[in-house]
Amino acid sequence: MEVRERIIEEATTQFFKFGIRNVTMDDIAVSLGISKRTVYETFQNKSSLVETCLKKMEVLQDELTKKIISESANVIECIFAFMESGIKAIKAVNPVFFKDMEKFYPQVFKSIESESKIRKSELGIKLTKEGIENGLFRKNLNVELVSKIFQEQMNMLADENIFPRDKYDLSEVFKNMTINFTRGISTLKGIEIIDKMLT
């Protein structure tokens, strides 16, 4: 792996673990056993590194999404795979990371958040339509509304006024939201698959 990729990988790991503000270019250099100068020769400043890490994350997330869709036997299996992936992410990423993003890199944060919303909306519509076509979701669903409601439910996870982290296990909240919502839009055939997957 070339130096640039190693820096991106190590920086992303540390940003996720400690938050962006708490990680210095020095920390990344020491972890990799390279000089601080090498890090600065590769990335002009920390902002440049942060932006590169976030773009790389988006690419990896898109690849994971395609992999999950291609390997899932049906839309419900696909949703459960996304749920497991989401639970891993919740457990792996320090909430400080998102707070730092919003506070210190607002433009990058808004850009990524905006693009992410579009992608999630398109994916939600695609999966809902597929579920209806395969007889797993109810025929009378308002597809765009279903996608929007599910997205807004997920957004509630980040709101500490609703789910304070010292009171709720966010991975458990996420799991409950996903399963209960999916059951609510499913046909009997879909519910049978959900129940089978939960046992």
Task: Describe this protein's structure.
With 199 residues, this protein is mainly alpha-helical. The chain has helices at 3-18, 25-32, 36-42, 46-71, 75-92, 95-104, 106-133, 143-156, 170-185, 188-198. Helix 5 (75-92) runs antiparallel to helix 9 (170-185) and helix 7 (106-133) packs across helix 8. It is elongated. The chain starts with a helix and ends with a helix.
Provide keyphrases for this structure.
199 residues; mainly alpha
Task: Give a topology summary.
Layout: H1 3-18, H2 25-32, H3 36-42, H4 46-71, H5 75-92, H6 95-104, H7 106-133, H8 143-156, H9 170-185, H10 188-198
Helix pairs in contact: 1-2, 1-4, 2-3, 4-5, 5-9, 6-7, 7-8, 8-9
Brief digest:
Helix content is 77%, strand content 0%. It contains ten helices and no strands.
Structural class of the helix and strand makeup?
Answer: mainly alpha
Count, helices:
10
Q: What is the share of helical residues?
A: over 70%
Task: State the oligomer.
Answer: single chain
The overall average pLDDT, rounded, is: 94
Unreliable stretches = none
Give, in order, the helices and strands: HHHHHHHHHH
| Amount of beta strand | under 5%
Q: Radius of gyration, rounded?
A: 19 Å
The strand count comes to 0
Separation of termini? 42 Å
Shape category? elongated
